[in-house]
């Protein structure tokens, strides 16, 4: 029985704290709304005065900041700077690679010339062999003529 009584008292205690928190929130809520309402009224009044002022440059600066155009413009300038820096880096790298590419092109030309010399050398060897066989055929033909002359 004492257990149930203690449990009941504890639940009443928790309920009273919860209701006190709700009451405090309800009491503070109109004050917060009133503060926000006053701030909103002050902002509207200031905006109205600003818009009726005659300085167009100030109006543009306000519009520029209010619409985040200034922030967008700054980001675009940062991107342009980054692109320019990137292009500069690429150009430097291309300039550093250019001598190597020239050397590679020269080596390619030397290789092609070497291959052409090798092909020419092989053709020369084939022509030498053909010349040797022609000499053999000519000597054979001459020896046949001499043999036929000798037989007759």
Automatic annotation (TrEMBL):
GO terms for molecular function: ATP binding; damaged DNA binding; single-stranded DNA binding. The keyword Signal applies. Keywords: ATP-binding, Chromosome, Coiled coil, DNA damage, DNA recombination, DNA repair, Nucleotide-binding, Nucleus, Signal. Residues 1-27 form the signal peptide. One of its GO terms (biological process) is double-strand break repair via homologous recombination. Coiled coil: none annotated. It is found in: Chromosome; Nucleus. GO terms for cellular component: nucleus; site of double-strand break; Smc5-Smc6 complex. This is Uncharacterized protein. It comes from Protea cynaroides.
């Amino acid at each position: 029985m004492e257990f149930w009584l203690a449990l009941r008292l504890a639940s009443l205690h928790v309920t009273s704290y919860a209701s006190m928190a709700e009451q405090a929130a309800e009491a503070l809520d109109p004050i917060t709304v009133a503060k926000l309402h006053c701030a909103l009224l002050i902002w509207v009044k200031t905006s109205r005065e600003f818009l009726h002022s005659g300085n167009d440059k100030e109006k543009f600066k306000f519009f520029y900041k209010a619409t985040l155009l200034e922030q967008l413009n700054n980001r675009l300038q940062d991107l342009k700077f980054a692109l320019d820096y990137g292009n500069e880096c690429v150009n430097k790298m291309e300039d550093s690679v250019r001598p190597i590419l020239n050397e590679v092109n020269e080596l390619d030309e030397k290789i092609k010339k070497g291959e052409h010399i090798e092909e020419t050398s092989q053709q020369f060897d084939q022509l030498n062999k053909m010349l040797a066989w022609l000499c053999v055929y000519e000597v054979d033909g001459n020896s046949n003529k001499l043999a036929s002359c000798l037989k007759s």
